[in-house]
Amino acid sequence: ETSAPAPPALASAAVLYSSLAQSSASPPPSVPVGGRFFLRLAAFLAILLMAVEYVWMHVLDGSSLGAILLFYGAAASFVIQNEDVRHCLSVVSRRAAVLLWPRCRSAAPVHVAFVDVFFADAMCSLSKVFFDWGMIWTIAYYHPNPVPQSYGSVVFPSLGASLPYIIRARQCILCWAEGKMNNDPNRYLHLLNCLKYSTSLFPLCISAYQKTMGGTVDDQYRVERILVIFLAINAGYSFAWDVVMDWGMAQNPSCSCKGNASGEHISTIESFLRPRLRFGVYASFSILILDGILRGSWMLRFYENALFSSVDVYVFTTQFLEVFRRGIWNLLRVDWEMVKQIQKRKGKEKDMPNPKPLDPGDSDTVPLVLI
Q1: Which of 32, 237, 240, 261 is buried deepest, with most CB atoms within 10 A?
Q2: Residues with Cβ < 8 Å from 266, sequence gap 6 or more?
Q3: 146, 2 in Cβ contact below 8 A?
Q4: pLDDT value of position 239
Q5: Average pLDDT per run of 10 along the chain, which is 371 residues long?
């Protein structure tokens, strides 16, 4: 029988959605909710899941489905009693409803808010979580029999894992339609971004096929080689997009070591990044390097037996690395969004008869527009 989902299933969701809770229009919780609260919540859920799995499956010799239901029951009782968690879950539920129930039901495309883009990107890092939820339904459907090795057994998990990428690709198409309506010359970039998320679907489909295929060792090796090729394409494409489009860096690499407009010499790293960096040159460059390395964390699959004691430990490790990568990615993504909004505001105020002075160096005085 398939084992219970690994601990990151709800813990990583709590960590990734912490910043989104601050954008809610509903009344604030009784106690200010911040990063420490969500780290404690993530740790609590992880410990609860491991304790339930150990007691139910190893001590009481119960089934994995029973352990899953017991965990969600215990987590639900905690949520009901905690006002702060109820508040944050309501925020997450509303943002998820916006993504699943499109805003563009009218004839003209509607602007996709930054908070929706930010939320959908976070969901992409939770693809394994959605896979686990789909697997829960599959286990429940076949219970008490084990899940068979068939195409039907991977339909719901694969659809769940693909959902975040489909939502994000749809947002790109909406942005392209909006750009076409406004005659934006750069609207093609949204189609390239859509293609990036589409490249994530091919490895998911091939991985699902691997779980159902039989055949010889040579057949399995050929499928594995195709999977590695698509994983490498997706990782390289995504990292390049991170640097150039999501972080606004490497916009003009040919200017490296030529100095700035005032003739002052700048280093290659400073030229490769961008002029305004909230976190400094070295911290930003370190984030860039770490993001590139962690984009290749899928290569741990080749050393799974050598480095990890079980499949659950391997899944937990890879999910933790992805949560960490998404966390540092968010720092530069929000920083670049702030810079773009300041530049956009400056451009609008220049067209006004009496523009209000705006100091581009003081981004703390300019609120980040999420909608």
Answers
A1: 237
A2: 257, 259, 260
A3: yes
A4: 94
A5: 44 43 42 66 83 86 82 82 75 72 55 85 88 83 78 82 90 89 90 92 84 73 89 93 90 57 57 79 91 92 86 86 92 90 72 48 49 51
- Tokens 């040919």 correspond to 254
> Maximum distance among all alpha carbons in the chain?
76
Strands annotated E in 166-218 = none
Distance (Å, whole) CA 31 – CA 28: 8
Q: Residue 287: in which H helix or E strand, if any?
A: helix 281-294
Block residue for tokens 């029951």: 73
From CA 120, how far away is CA 110, in angstroms rounded? Answer: 17
CB count in 10 Å sphere of residue 153 = 21
Q: If phi over 0 gives left and psi between -120 and 50 gives alpha, with beta otherwise, what is residue 183?
A: left
What pLDDT shows up at residue 25?
Answer: 39
Q: Which residues, 6 or more positions from 186, have their beta carbon under 8 angstroms from its beta carbon?
A: 179
Contact 271, 249 (CB under 8 A): no
pTM above 0.85, yes or no: no
Closest-CA residue to 162 (of 153, 170, 173, 151): 170
**Token pair of 160, please?**
């769940």
Q: Which pair of tokens denotes residue 318?
A: 């890879």
CA pair distance 91, 97, nearest whole angstrom: 10
DSSP 93-111: HHHHHHHHS-S--SSSPPP
Residue 248: which of 269, 219, 282, 272 has the closest Cα? 272
Cα–Cα distance for residue pair 74/19, rounded to 1 Å:
25
| Contact predicate 153/147, CB 8 Å | yes
Radius of gyration of the chain, Cα coordinates, nearest whole angstrom: 23
**44-81: b or e for each residue (b if 16 or more CB lie within 10 Å)?**
bbbebbbebbeebbeeeebbbbebbbbbeeebeeeeee
Contact of 85 with 79, CB cutoff 8 Å: yes
Tokens of 170: 């749809």
Nearest-CA neighbor of 273 among 264, 265, 283, 263?
283
